[in-house]
């Protein structure tokens, strides 16, 4: 019984650590994004197509750069202590995931599927989808 409690405690502690690490990463990345002009502007479909065609070329063009991306919201959700806005691209198997810190909760509560948004963030390449980290909204979000 003591081992079960210890295992449960370790799992809870690990979950808290991962959540905290995710929040810290977004806050650090957001400071970098806020302090710089965008290197490039594009739309979600163009960005996704670049990575779908050739991820190496996509990284060469967009990777590690500050981007302003305009697109339509597919959904908004939470993941590992971050808020994520997922943008549609015309290809349901390839989306753009825009990671925000929890500090943007009030803004994100006003965003819904179908909204057109412009988001600035640092392109971290493609895992399952193309990832933008340290995101902030550009201009007013109505």
What does this entry look like structurally?
There is one protein chain. This protein has 142 residues and is α/β, with parallel strands linked by helices. It has one domain: OB fold (Dihydrolipoamide Acetyltransferase, E2P). The chain is built from four helices and six strands; from the N terminus they run H-E-H-H-E-E-E-H-E-E. Strands 2-3-4-6-5 form a five-stranded mixed barrel. Strand 5 and strand 6 form a beta hairpin. The radius of gyration is 17 Å and the shape is globular. About 13% of the residues have low confidence.
Order of helices and strands: HEHHEEEHEE
Strand content: 25-35%
Number of domains: 1
Would you report the number of β strands? 6
What Rg do the Cα atoms give?
17 Å
Q: Number of DSSP helices?
A: 4
Instruction: Provide the spatial order of strands within the biggest beta sheet.
Output: 2-3-4-6-5
How does CATH name the architecture? Beta Barrel
CATH topology: OB fold (Dihydrolipoamide Acetyltransferase, E2P)
Q: How would you characterize the largest beta sheet?
A: 5 strands, mixed, barrel
Helix content: 25-40%
Just give the CATH class.
Mainly Beta
- Overall pLDDT metric: 84
């Amino acid at each position: 019984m003591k081992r079960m409690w210890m295992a449960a405690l370790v799992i809870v502690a690990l979950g808290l650590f991962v959540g905290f690490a995710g929040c810290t990463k977004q806050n650090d990345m957001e400071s970098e994004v806020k302090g710089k002009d965008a290197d490039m502007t594009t739309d979600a479909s163009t960005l996704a197509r670049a990575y779908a065609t050739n991820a190496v070329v996509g990284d060469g063009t967009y990777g590690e750069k500050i981007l302003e991306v305009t697109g339509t919201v597919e959904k908004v959700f939470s993941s590992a202590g971050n808020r994520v806005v997922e943008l549609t691209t015309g290809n349901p198997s390839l989306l753009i995931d825009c990671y925000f810190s929890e500090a943007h909760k009030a803004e994100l509560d006003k965003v819904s599927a179908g909204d057109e948004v412009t988001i600035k963030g640092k392109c971290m390449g493609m895992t399952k989808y193309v990832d933008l980290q340290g995101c902030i909204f550009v201009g007013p979000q109505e």
